[in-house]
Amino acid sequence: QVQLVESGGASVQAGGSLRLSCAVSGYKPSRLCMGWFRQTPGKEREGVVAIASDGTTRYADSVKGRFTVSKDNAKNILYLQMNSLRPEDTAMYYCAADPVITYCGLHYGQFPYWGQGTQVTVSS
């Protein structure tokens, strides 16, 4: 059983930066496909970035060049560094994991394990 706990969400002004963390237990993150997703009320959960066990990443076009995903396999933590934040980045951000590594993509239906979410609010 994979357990995920996000932290780091906050309220920031546009142009600012945040780093989200996702603590992983029950499985080694180096062997997982992991992803960051976000959701606003009334909208479908959106894939932000996925990172495969070999480090291959897939970013949503809306965050390319601004967000960076990384894993600290020694600490079992997944990070999401978010720079140049925009009001449209405002959402609940979720960490997700999939131990069945056949494809590591951005669709939320692939991921069976989810954290509880952390809120990011960007004001203009």
Structure characterization notes:
There is one protein chain. The N and C termini lie far apart (40 Å). The strands form two sheets. Strands 2, 4, 5, 6, 9, 10 and 11 form a seven-stranded mixed sheet that branches. Strands 1-3-8-7 form a four-stranded antiparallel sheet, with no helix packed on it. It is 0% helix and 48% strand. The model has no long low-confidence stretch (mean pLDDT 95). The chain contains no helices and eleven strands. It has strands at residues 3-7, 11-13, 18-25, 33-39, 46-51, 57-59, 67-72, 77-82, 91-98, 113-114, 118-123. The chain has 124 residues and is mainly beta.
Mean of residue pLDDT?
A: 95
Number of helices: 0
* Poorly predicted runs of 5 or more residues: none
Q: Could you tell me how far the N terminus lies from the C terminus, measured between alpha carbons in angstroms?
A: 40 Å
Question: Rg from C-alpha positions?
Answer: 13 Å
Which structural class matches the secondary elements?
Answer: mainly beta
Largest sheet: 7 strands, mixed
Q: Shape, please? A: globular
Order of helices and strands: EEEEEEEEEEE
Helix content: under 10%
Q: Approximately how much beta-strand content do the residues carry?
A: over 45%
Topology, number of strands: 11
